């Protein structure tokens, strides 16, 4: 099969022929129809994020496709089923084993969900990370419900998706995004207002703020934007270390949570259901499989709004 291989940190990807893997017990082999590109893969390539498996490695953890082969002990699934897989930090293609920048990839059957008939492959692939990460931040850790007043900081690929989910949950949503070119899109998704800087939210006494930027200053601003005993959820990793004013946090009993996906199929199913119902669209640009290396370069240079998804033939 064809696959994009990373030989070592800081090396270019190589498009090569490799042996097609076979599923072990509890696994299925997926024929990849769409493979999403993620900025975390740039982190692996640059050495910012440690690679957990030996080089050479096939990256890519956002996949949708059809089951090509079934491993021992797997029940309830058939060859040809259209599927996607919920990812976790310690269990995902391209993270804990070779990934989806390839024509075929292995996933654990316990993480699978069945895609509805006619589901767009690119949307399904983007849902496994952009959709699932955003849902986890807004619904699982943010606990956003109808009637809440919610701030979304950063309206890139994740934040714009999270903002849509918060609106669907019935919240009144305020966005923060310095790129004014994205404001009209955000308002079109139902946001009440969009501001250029998180400081504009200060004193609004919001119920919840989800920080999809994570630059330290954004999280500090989010703490000042929520009500006493309000909740701030950190999703973005713009900076790995930063300081906060502990008085702001303690004096008003603010709850600060980190959020990450947990490989829960039910959470991915909820995202897929929203997409299938037309209530959620992950902003995604489709590219060719042969363009994956170039696409990662675009991500590295900050030239992408939303997500890139590589499409593979049937």
Automatic annotation (TrEMBL):
An MF annotation (GO) of this entry: alcohol dehydrogenase (NAD+) activity
Catalytic reaction annotation: a secondary alcohol + NAD(+) = a ketone + NADH + H(+); a primary alcohol + NAD(+) = an aldehyde + NADH + H(+)
PROSITE patterns on file: ADH_ZINC
GO-annotated cellular components: cytoplasm
Domain Enoyl reductase (ER), residue spans: 8-310
Keywords of the record: Metal-binding, Oxidoreductase, Zinc
Pfam families: ADH_N (PF08240), ADH_zinc_N (PF00107)
Cofactor(s) the protein needs: Zn(2+)
Domain of life, per lineage: Bacteria
EC number in record: 1.1.1.1
InterPro entries hit by this protein: ADH-like_C, ADH-like_N, ADH_Zn_CS, ER, GroES-like_sf, NAD(P)-bd_dom_sf
Family to which this protein belongs: Belongs to the zinc-containing alcohol dehydrogenase family.
The protein's name in its UniProt record: alcohol dehydrogenase
Lineage: Bacteria, Bacillati, Actinomycetota, Actinomycetes, Micrococcales
């Amino acid at each position: 099969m064809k696959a994009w291989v990373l030989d070592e940190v800081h090396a270019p990807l190589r498009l090569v022929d490799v042996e097609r893997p076979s599923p072990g017990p509890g696994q299925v082999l997926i024929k990849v129809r769409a493979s999403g590109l993620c900025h975390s893969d740039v982190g692996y390539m640059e050495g910012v994020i440690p690679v957990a498996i030996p080089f050479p490695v096939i990256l890519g953890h956002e996949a949708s496709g059809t089951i090509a082969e079934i491993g021992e002990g797997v029940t309830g699934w058939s060859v040809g089923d259209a599927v996607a897989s919920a990812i976790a930090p310690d269990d995902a293609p391209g993270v804990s084993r070779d990934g989806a920048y390839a024509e075929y990839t292995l996933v654990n059957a316990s993480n699978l969900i069945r895609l509805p008939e006619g589901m767009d492959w690119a949307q399904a692939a983007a849902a496994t990370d952009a959709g699932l990460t955003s849902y986890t931040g807004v619904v699982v850790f943010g606990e956003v419900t109808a009637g809440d007043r919610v701030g979304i900081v950063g309206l890139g690929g994740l934040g714009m998706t999270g903002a849509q989910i918060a609106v669907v949950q019935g919240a009144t949503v305020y966005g923060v995004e310095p790129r004014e070119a994205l404001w009209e899109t955000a308002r079109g998704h139902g946001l009440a207002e969009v501001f250029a800087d998180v400081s504009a939210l200060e004193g609004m006494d919001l119920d919840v703020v989800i920080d999809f930027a994570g630059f330290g200053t954004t999280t500090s601003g989010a703490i000042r934007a929520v009500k006493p005993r309000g909740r701030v959820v950190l999703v973005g990793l713009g900076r790995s270390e930063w300081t906060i004013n502990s008085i702001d946090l303690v004096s008003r009993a603010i709850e600060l949570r980190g959020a990450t996906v947990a490989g829960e199929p039910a959470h991915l199913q909820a995202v897929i259901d929203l997409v299938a119902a037309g209530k959620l669209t992950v902003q995604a640009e489709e590219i060719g499989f042969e363009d994956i290396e170039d696409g990662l370069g675009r991500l590295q240079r900050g030239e992408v709004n939303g997500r890139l998804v590589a499409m593979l033939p049937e």
